[in-house]
Amino acid sequence: MIKVYGVHGSPYVRKVFIALDIKDVPYEIVRQMPFSEDAKYLKINPLGKIPSLVDEDLTLCDSKVICQYLDDAYPKPRLYPMRADDWARALWYEDLAGGRVSELAASIFFQRFMRPLAFKQEPDEELIARIIEKDLPPMLDYLESQIPTGRFIFGDFMMADLSIASPFINAAYAGYEVDESRWPNLAGLVARVRAQPQVAAVLEKEQRALGLD
Amino acid sequence: MIKVYGVHGSPYVRKVFIALDIKDVPYEIVRQMPFSEDAKYLKINPLGKIPSLVDEDLTLCDSKVICQYLDDAYPKPRLYPMRADDWARALWYEDLAGGRVSELAASIFFQRFMRPLAFKQEPDEELIARIIEKDLPPMLDYLESQIPTGRFIFGDFMMADLSIASPFINAAYAGYEVDESRWPNLAGLVARVRAQPQVAAVLEKEQRALGLD
């Protein structure tokens, strides 16, 4: 059976759980915190990040790579568009969302949620203000320009939608919501993603894991 | 005609030029430095990074995404393997090489090469020593474990080989070479990649652009 290394609550691990659930592929979760110095895990993923996937002889890291692999190995239903140009745009949105956008959203989540909880430290509100007022808006403006009004990006719900929404789900745990008067298409997309049944089911599990239920 | 935004010398732009040359697809280079604050370029790439590709109505950013698109749109010769597991491993190697490995190698290049040249500043040798002695070796150990002896990773020369070699080509401009007694498979791969005719041709152009000829 496929093994997924990770924990509930990571914006990256979430994508893999949801992709597997949508494709109805059974998997086992191997509990693994990110950035552990565990030498055994570093052999699986030299970056120590999560998720990693082990499927018999194949070991893969990085949620983008894992989700692309799953779409190829278990093609129904498709989570990436078939047309070459749409497919490439989907990859780019996922790269941007999992890169710069997640870094910023994860900083809000880390500062306001994980730091008080795990380290008993106050959040750095100056850093948070800079992210919310200065660093995030150009990214949100760009995403807003790419997202259609009232529907998923490529028609059906796909990985592009989930990967864009995922960091904002974490930011919301820390009290940050995308301003729907300023970025209505993005705010609408995040809401539509949350309402997907397989997404809602995973979010319920992770809220229990994070002690938010 | 396809437009590639970027400059010679970037480890990421290099991948795209070489992919296009191998596939014999004509393109126009639009000279663009990374991290410019040019509002027009930020509309193409909100991160301000290079390369970006514009092909009629399609705008794509990120060298991984662009190279995947090119392999799909111009399939001959293939630069990614056809088997699902090999293909996914190739994506993971490219992600690692363009991520953490490039960050480290680019720091050596920036400190020793760009900083004196462009900013008339001394390199931070303490930072360089930490990268070379502490941060890079675990990445090199991992890559060494994944690379076969005496040949390319998937038989033919492909993007996985080029993306792993590319950051080390930049580090070599700054005097850092992979120690072939410690990491012989990796050092051998970098040498084999350099010897590919389309790679050698692009390296010749970029050495002229960097004033190294």
TrEMBL record, chains A, B:
Pfam families: GST_C_3, GST_N_3
Key words, A-Z: Transferase
Domain GST C-terminal: 85-212
Source domain of life: Bacteria
Positions of the GST N-terminal domain: 1-78
A GO biological-process term: glutathione metabolic process
GO molecular function, one term: maleylacetoacetate isomerase activity
This protein's name: Glutathione S-transferase
Organism: Oceanicoccus sagamiensis
